[in-house]
Design goal:
Blueprint lengths: L8 H5 L9 H9 L5 H35 L2 H49 L3 H5 L3 H43 L1 H9 L1 H37 L1 H9 L3 H53 L5 H42 L21 E8 L53 E8 L4 E5 L6 H7 L8 E6 L2 E2 L5 H7 E4 L10 H6 L7 H10 L3 H6 L17 H15 L3 E5 L7 H15 L3 E5 L3 H6 L2 E6 L2 E6 L1 H7 L2 H8 L2 H6 L1
Parallel strand pairs: 3-8, 3-9, 6-7, 7-8
Antiparallel strand pairs: 1-2, 1-4, 4-5, 9-10
Helix pairs in contact: 3-4, 3-6, 3-11, 4-6, 6-7, 6-11, 7-10, 8-9, 8-10, 10-11, 15-17, 17-18
């Protein structure tokens, strides 16, 4: 006899979360099975037929031993032998049929949940993603979705199967011999006691094994990605990392050995308990046979039923833990689906068809704050890499401390509570506005508010006189093009990365955009041209090449309002010149909000907004601001000193 359907493992996987199953949650869970109700009905029919077939074989054996063989009836022997062949064949076919329906239900639920989750995540604001670990999102989309699916396609089906099997077997056993049936059931509490005692120890060592694997996998993830591998080579730390990996791998090995020994001991003890039950049944049954209370065939049939009974009863004993564990996964999935959107679209939101490009900030204040109601709850996931706080040192959060030093630069620090404080400005269609100021002054935050990556804490932003909150998110996105300093490219071809701006663009339009961004010639010289795979995050391309591809992508989108970070300080002079030339084409006849790093852009600006500590402290043209002799004049004398010689 053994635990089936992951019975003993349920004790290991049931974390200390104390899951609670409420009727409302259960009703919502069952709602996900409603589209598959006919498949579930088919499974129930298959379970009933399968349970009935399993009852026939022991009865055939009893008939064979008690009547057919002693009577020497060859014709009946042939029929019973054929029956012993047909029953498993029918059972196998029914099992395949049931498995197909079960898979259809399970995979269908996974699909429904994943689609609902992914669609919800796509509508979450940037604030959500900056406060949520990617690993946690992957766990919800993969582990929790599969765990939730188990509640419908495996756990519930398993409970029904075991319940039907136990009732049917017990009914037949009682009709055969009630005393043996009583002995069979008495042994069950011993199984449960041993499972809980040894199961707890197995759970603890299993968690140790998962955490050790997480430490090892986290180190591999840190040192075998592109950035980590490069760092190891640059500092000549290959031998150190091998030694460090050896420690983690040996820990995994040692725990694995302990886990294997304890697991085997567990099953040996369970086997001995099963043997005790079997010995008692056959001992008492043999005595009753000797006393001629019933036949040899009856005890043989009874022994066959015994294993089925133990298996079914053990499965039912584990069912509450298994079901509650699966429900926890549903709760985590529903948590994401139920998260409120802090960038919500009004029901009556209007589409922005053709924008003129007029932009206005009115008393805008913004504070970075993580609202608990829009974030995921913290979940302890054993064996997940995101649980590893310090990959190399092994330190946990809060263990590493640094001596605080007096901040002599506090007076000039950009640290503050409000990222943006009471901003107001107006941009006419087609104007170029340059944002300048110290690092951390709030320039990037300002640009993030324009496409509604965040909403202002106070105040309003208008495009063509329409409040951004009154527009649909898709139509707003269609009118705004944004190029950030950190260019992101998908691990795909250059063509695919460019077409992301406009999926229906023709090859001629793609090439025209690339030419405007001064990147077409470079692409055509690559071995695979536009079909060249750029590598993870565009790692195969230089900074200037990635920026020009990003510019080409925005040109292909053809937005009315352009927002860009014109960071070129880390580029070589040739790449910088190509990008500057491309920028002139990109910004032509568009409303442009540019975080300016070049004097040429500032000189061409219709309006310069000088930011400091989240406020606009100066505004005007280049010459007007120089005459003020304030922060802009100071920045001009320091940050743009190299450009002054060129201009």
């Amino acid at each position: 006899m053994g635990f089936h359907g992951g019975g003993w493992w349920s004790y290991l996987s049931s974390a200390d979360e104390r899951p609670k199953v409420t009727w409302g949650l259960l009703r919502r869970v069952l709602a996900y099975s409603r589209p598959y109700r006919w498949q579930i009905v088919g499974m129930l029919v298959a379970i009933l037929i399968g349970a009935g077939l399993t009852l026939l074989t022991p009865l055939i054996l009893r008939e064979l031993i008690d009547n057919t063989l002693p009577a020497g009836r060859l014709d009946r022997l042939v029929l019973l032998s054929i029956g012993l062949l047909i029953i498993p064949a029918l059972g196998g076919a029914i099992n395949v049929w049931q498995r197909r329906m079960n898979a259809a239900v399970g995979e269908g639920v996974i699909y429904d949940l994943r689609l609902a989750l992914y669609a919800r995540l796509q509508r979450m604001s940037l604030r959500f993603f900056t406060n949520t670990k990617v690993g946690e999102l992957m766990s919800r989309l993969n582990n929790d979705v599969v765990g939730a699916q188990n509640a419908i396609s495996n756990t519930i089906v398993g409970i029904i199967t075991n319940l039907i099997q136990a009732m049917a077997v017990l009914g037949v056993m009682l009709t055969l011999e009630w005393r043996l049936t009583l002995v069979s059931v008495i042994i069950l509490p011993l199984f449960i006691y041993v499972a809980r005692r040894l199961g707890t120890r197995l759970r603890d060592i299993a968690r140790q094994a998962m955490d050790a694997n997480a430490q090892m996998n986290a180190m591999m993830n840190e040192t075998l990605n592109i950035g980590g591998a490069l760092l190891v080579k640059l500092f000549g730390r290959a031998a150190v990392e091998v030694e460090r990996f050896d420690q983690r791998a040996s820990n995994v090995r040692d725990i694995g050995i302990r886990r294997a020994v304890l697991g085997t001991s567990f099953f040996v003890i369970i086997g001995l308990l099963s043997a005790i039950g079997t010995a008692l049944v056959y001992g008492l049954g043999g005595y009753l046979v000797i006393q001629r209370a019933f036949t040899i065939g009856t005890i043989v049939a009874f022994g066959s039923y015994l294993a089925s009974l133990y298996s079914a009863l053990q499965g039912l004993a584990n069912a509450p833990v298994e079901f509650a564990t699966s429900i926890v996964s549903f709760e985590r999935v529903f948590e994401v689906i139920d998260l409120p959107q802090d960038i919500a679209e009004k029901a009556e939101a209007m589409n922005l068809r053709e924008s003129r490009g007029e932009l206005e900030f009115s008393r805008v204040t913004f504070r970075y704050e993580a609202r608990e109601d829009t974030l995921l709850s913290q979940v302890r996931r054993f064996g997940r890499m995101e649980d590893v706080t310090a990959v190399f040192s092994g330190s946990k959060a809060g263990q590493v401390s640094r001596d605080s030093e007096p901040d002599e630069m506090a007076a000039r620090s950009q640290a503050r509570e409000l990222a943006l404080d009471d901003l107001s400005f107006h941009v006419q269609p087609g104007q170029l506005v340059a944002l300048v100021g110290p690092s951390g002054a709030g320039k990037t935050t300002l640009t993030y508010l324009i496409p509604r990556l965040y909403d202002p804490t106070e105040g309003d932003i208008f495009i063509d006189g329409i409040n951004l909150r009154d527009l649909t998110l898709d139509s707003l996105s269609a009118q705004i093009g944004m190029v950030t300093q950190e260019t992101h490219l998908f691990h795909d071809t250059i063509r695919t990365n460019l077409l992301y701006a406009r999926l229906d663009a023709s090859q001629l339009e793609v090439e025209a955009a690339a030419r405007a961004a001064n990147i077409h010639e470079f692409i055509t010289e690559l071995p695979d041209g536009y079909d060249t795979v750029v590598g993870e995050r565009g790692y195969r391309l230089s900074g200037g090449e990635k920026q020009r591809i990003a510019l080409a992508r925005v040109i292909l989108k053809d937005p009315r309002i352009l927002v860009l970070d014109e960071a070129t300080s880390h580029l070589d002079s040739e790449s910088e010149a190509l990008i500057q030339e491309a920028l002139k084409r990109v910004m032509a006849d568009r409303t442009s909000i540019v975080i300016a790093h070049r004097l040429s852009t500032i000189l061409a600006a219709d309006q310069i907004l000088v930011m400091d500590r989240g406020r606009i402290v100066e505004r005007g043209t280049h010459h007007e601001l120089l005459e003020l002799g304030g922060l802009y004049a100071s920045l001009y004398a320091t940050q743009f000193s190299r450009d002054r010689q060129v201009v």
